Amino acid sequence: MARRTPQLAGRTVRVLVCTERKTFVTRELPEVRVTFEGIEGDRHAGLTRPSDVRTPWFPRGTPIRNTRQLSLVSSEELAEVAQGLGIPEVLATWLGANLEVAGVPRLTLLPPGTRLFFPEDAVLAVEGENTPCIGPGRVIEAHHPDGPKLASRFVKAAWQKRGLVAWVERPGLLRAGDEVRVMLPKPVTYVLPG
Amino acid sequence: MARRTPQLAGRTVRVLVCTERKTFVTRELPEVRVTFEGIEGDRHAGLTRPSDVRTPWFPRGTPIRNTRQLSLVSSEELAEVAQGLGIPEVLATWLGANLEVAGVPRLTLLPPGTRLFFPEDAVLAVEGENTPCIGPGRVIEAHHPDGPKLASRFVKAAWQKRGLVAWVERPGLLRAGDEVRVMLPKPVTYVLPG
Of A35, A70, A147, B103, which one's alpha carbon is 20 to 30 angstroms from that of B62? Predict the structure, then answer.
């Protein structure tokens, strides 16, 4: 069982929420409550969601289980994205993130099935990488109108650095300043036959 | 996107259900309907489940999201387990499996996040390996009372061959004889720092 206890730890830098429909940009709160539906009141909360461009193997709008309840970013990776874009900083809120974590190396590469444990009961399960699209790039560009082509450059600069999406395995609180412990799934290597 | 389209295909050999509380042994049906809760009427159905010996990092009985709605086994792996035990066959029903699949090499090693697509809309998401415990071994022993220590030998013989647990991403039908297509998650390699 030793292999399945948390192997890494980091810190919750900030928690964020978006309760509006016309923007994905999030705002910071000291803490948020998560239920099996996600963050209470957040635009991505729900046990199910309609399939979209992220799941092109389903007809658009098909109800599927919501594995993208929360989006997570890493302070260190955000700094790398900013550096790549030549701007001072990229804020978690611009990316619509719900949680900014520090101290977990290469957060974006945590594999599907990874569990994140928080001290106030909440546990998140990683669905996988949140692949960068141009939306957050446009927000960055709006904050740096003099930056050359920031919107489209964001997609490349944020490659494997844009964080994760996750769903709630156990309800509880997410709170700025709290520790987060990371439990990797059992390592498997599946090699395609032939 | 090509990388995320189904890369493997197999066949649903049988679908099985357990509607009783006093046994985990399943019985075969021509087809079953799955909802977001799992197989309708099955003992493992539910959006949530109480945590148990499989999740020792939670206090026993804590409500957590149910990622073990269905259990899947492979015809080829069952044959290998039987061979290892020196008996003619190990039946999916003895292991409490809900789905027996043939033609997907090393089914048990499909990584968390793998999706299984069925022709009647249903899609299952793989939580991970179903680690063998002694319960099914006792059922096997009950069918082979002259076999030496089959119950305890099962745990070793079924190592990495006992199949998977999964949850429903999209409702639909599971039907014996239908094709199953396998979509692996995007490959990630996460190496622990240090």
Answer: A70
Please state the rounded mean pLDDT for residues B37-54. 96
Supply the pTM of this predicted model.
Answer: 0.94
Q: List, as one string, the DSSP characters of chain B.
A: -GGGS--EEEEEEEEEE---SS----EEESEEEEETTEETT-TT--SEEE--TT-TTS-TT-EEE---SEEEEEHHHHHHHHHHHTSS---GGGGT-SEEEES-TTGGGPPTT-EEE-TTS-EEEEEEE----HHHHHHHHHH-TTSTTHHHHHHHHTTTTS-EEEEEEE-EEEETT-EEEEEPPPP-------
pLDDT (0 to 100) of residue A7: 79
List, for residues B67-114, the tens digit of each pLDDT value: 999 999 999 999 999 999 999 999 999 999 999 999 999 999 999 999
Q: Does A5 touch chain B (CB under 8 A)?
A: yes
Residue A111's closest chain B neighbor by CA?
B188
Confidence at B189, pLDDT banded by 50, 70, 90: confident
d(CA B133, CA B93): 15
**Which of B65, B66, B123 to mutate to probe the A interface, most A CBs <10 Å?**
B65
